[in-house]
Amino acid sequence: MPVSMSDSELRERFGSRPDLADVAAYGAPQLDVAVRLNTNESPYPPPKDFMEDLGRSVANLGLNRYPDRDFPALREGLARHVGTLTERIWVANGSNEIIQQLVQAFGGSERKAMTFEPTYAMHSHITRVSGTRFIRARRNPDFTMDLEASLSAIGLSQPEIIFLCSPNNPTGTVIPDEDVAAICDAAPGLVILDEAYAEFSGGSLWRLVEDYEHLVVVRTFSKAWRMAGARIGYMVAQGSVGRGPHGPCPRRGVDGHGRDDPPRAGPVVERAVHNPGHHRLPEPRQLHPVPVRVGAGPRGLAPTAGARGARPRLLLDPGL
Ligand SMILES: Cc1ncc(COP(=O)(O)O)c(C=O)c1O
Fold it and tell me: Most buried among 73, 78, 167, 291, by the most CB within 10 A?
């Protein structure tokens, strides 16, 4: 017989973790506008012939089978794309899931993760939802990193996970290569370098993983490659970031308890995007540069008047 319970009784018996009570859901509304600045999606769809290829590949999938949980073909293709070894690549459903797997494996209630704010909101969100202690360090007023202050924050707090984001969302600030290296030198644990926008800057620092086995470089096909809907994110790492049965887990260098938490591999996209011997992905497409100055808009970014006449008004026009 159903028993009726008050709201507070319900919350007490079936409520989520009390430490999540003040955690809001990730707040990036999906607006019906052409240019979605809040989610940084490309307004351009992938090329037509790529989509036709994808459709043909999807038609031949054996969906009655579970996919290979190590997705070797996709990882081989990505390794070729990056120019590294297949064993250095791990893939998941978007770079958010890579970050989530890393925090599940390397974080936890006894551990701390540090961000340099303002930065991508999911870093702190995933940290908090995983129960990992969250330490918020600051950037300079112009949103560059203050290396000395950052190193001393790291020295004081000894975080097991450090998040870096370059170019940084939402400020666009790039962390100089030598500062990334200095932070890796000082880090007592894992360094996650989120490079979601590396294609819009001088390039990726993935080669640094050869020098630092506690560095993980996280990349995505959601931005310059205009495939946010495909949910393909990957990481480049070596050594200490081993792969457990199905995902990242601590190995040597950084101790901890990897959890066997199988990722969903996005099998349709995985097999369709990568045809062995026929490595086809749409080219990243550069957007028209909109001159941007930092600190002017309500959230730190606002187009300035420039060669193409982009004005702050741009943000207010319908469609943006
Ligand atoms: C810095 C940063 N990292 C990661 C992501 C998530 O990308 P993905 O679509 O690969 O999960 C975003 C998306 O906005 C981002 O801005």
Answer: 78
What are the mean pLDDT values of the chain's consecutive 10-residue runs (320 residues total)? Answer: 77 82 78 78 94 95 91 95 95 97 95 98 96 97 97 98 97 97 97 97 94 96 95 87 68 39 32 35 51 41 35 42
Domain ranges across the chain: 48-275
What is the C-alpha separation between 58 and 53, in angstroms, rounded?
Answer: 9
- For residue 220, the ligand 1 atom closest to its alpha carbon is 10
Q: How far is the CA of 95 from the centre of ligand 1 (A)?
A: 6
The CATH number of 48-275 is 3.40.640.10
Report CA-CA distances (Å) from 217 to 55, 102, 206: 31, 11, 6
Q: Compute the distance from residue 111 Cα to the ligand 1 centre, in Å.
A: 24
Distance (angstroms) between ligand 1 centre and the Cα of 194 equals 8
Nearest alpha carbon to residue 232 among 122, 102, 93, 100: 93
